[in-house]
Amino acid sequence: MRYIDDSVVMKRMKTRLNRNKGWKALFLTGTLFALLCLVILLVRIVTQGVGYLDWDFITNFASRRPENAGIKAALVGSIYMMCIIAPVSMILGVATAIYLEEYAKKNKINDFIRMNISNLAGVPSIVFGLLGLTIFVRALALGKSLLAAGFTMSLLILPVIIVAAQEAIRAVPQEQREASYGMGATKWQTITRVVLPAAIPGILTGSILALSRAIGETAPLVVIGIPVILRFLPDGLLSEFTALPMQIYDWAKRPQEEFLYVASAGIIVLMLFLVIMNSIAIFIRNKFSKRY
Amino acid sequence: MASQGFRNGQSVQDLIAKSRNRKGKKITEKTMPILLFIAALISVLTTIGIVFTLIFETFEFFQRVSITDYLFGTSWLPFSGNNPTFGVLPLILGTLKVTVIAIIVAVPIGLAAAIYLSEYASDKARRTIKPILEVLAGVPTIVYGFFALTFVTPILQQLIPSLKIFNALSPGIVVGIMIIPMIASLSEDAMSSVPNSIREGALALGATKFEVALKVVLPAALSGIISSAVLAISRALGETMIVSLAGGASPTFDFSVTGSIQTMTAYIVQVSSGDAGYGTTIYYSIYAVGFTLFVFTLIMNLLAHYISKRFREEY
User: CDD domains, alphabetically (chain B) (predicted)?
Assistant: First the structure.
């Protein structure tokens, strides 16, 4: 009696192998579709917008006429806003991460803080806009200013920075801390002189990626009520300003076809901005990160 | 400083004793944890701030509009001068339409990409494709919105002549494209964490790669995959700029995907970019809608957390 009939096995094997091939092709198609979307998106925007992209576009203020429209106020506003977001979110984020990784004991309060951070990361950005409108714009009377928008955006990306910093701090091996204690260093000395220097590349990479998210975020700015057409540059923390995504949003809404090309040109500038930031992040990751 | 100490004829013990008694250091050691704890509390305060703001202003809204009218009303016409109605169901329906379309687009494609990357792709291919997918995830939503309005909608209009300029289909598809990387990358992580020995065991029994993926890896990684999909749903519910640009501003209570809709987020944007005066019913209504949205996404996030914790296979 034969347990295995070769001809049946061969026959079934063929269909199974073919099925494997077919599904592999399907899975590959799915992957390529996602990549194709990115290519179409980029090609489309570059071909539409590149004609309107010149030096005047960078140095002109917004205008009612598409051929004169520029993004000076928006570009400067976005850069100023970043100068607020970066220190605020990084100081708070890294401090929180140090606390959670180095000091926090396992108890209810710290568990709650951890759970709270992971939930905060899932809150839609528009809800942060409502928070900013109520607390910063109205209650603290900061108005529709750089400071109000900067604080709102800082809170928005805070969870992302905390998680990135936590991972970077966790990656520093315990032996290094113990060696430092063994030399007589205190806890705080160990953190500032051993843990943080080793974790800084990871922290910076994560923070820059989070910042690039803040730069492209539009919804909270709309809710706060950031004006769109400004013909002056912000002159202080409490000054009104406008930002790149707000400007693009305004152009995209306009019915005239020319403004769609202007919006594309604005998107190119925004994307270049993000590409530069991401390149810096990748550069830091590759150049300075150590593996233990 | 140490060399100075030796020059003055002090011993190492003296130096240690001196440094131990230095006041500044002791104070730093004591105060830094407290300062760090305060920083950690900011994130808690943010949550409290969000919840209280929403509840406070929503309460104010319910002083003017009855809760049952809001929750069960099927007509959302806040701007009709004489007789404004605030029934939230059309907004919720609009949001759900976009979310369902997005999930229909994103789950199969994202999962296919995840399986390909984790089971079939070479190490080199994976290391090239994953970062590119991350770029897709980093594109600002305003760019996707612009893409939906100026590229996807015109193409769809050629296929479906009855499609309006503002509709649910186009933003739904584009939101789907936006969340593909999220599903792909989270599911890929879940599948990669299934140990290779299990795969090799199945392969040694004669299974094809597809059979390994379908019958071994997928069941083992299911909790991670489902929670990635739930997180993606939460993301799609809260998506704002794509639906504001391409979805329109007419909340309707029907199941058509070709007509103009309005989502909860798009309504908040519409009111914020107009000039609804502070203290009007319309002003408070954005908090009620925001609160509704917040509850929806919170449930989704907690659900994802629960699924990935409760049903995780430990190896």
Answer: TM_PBP2
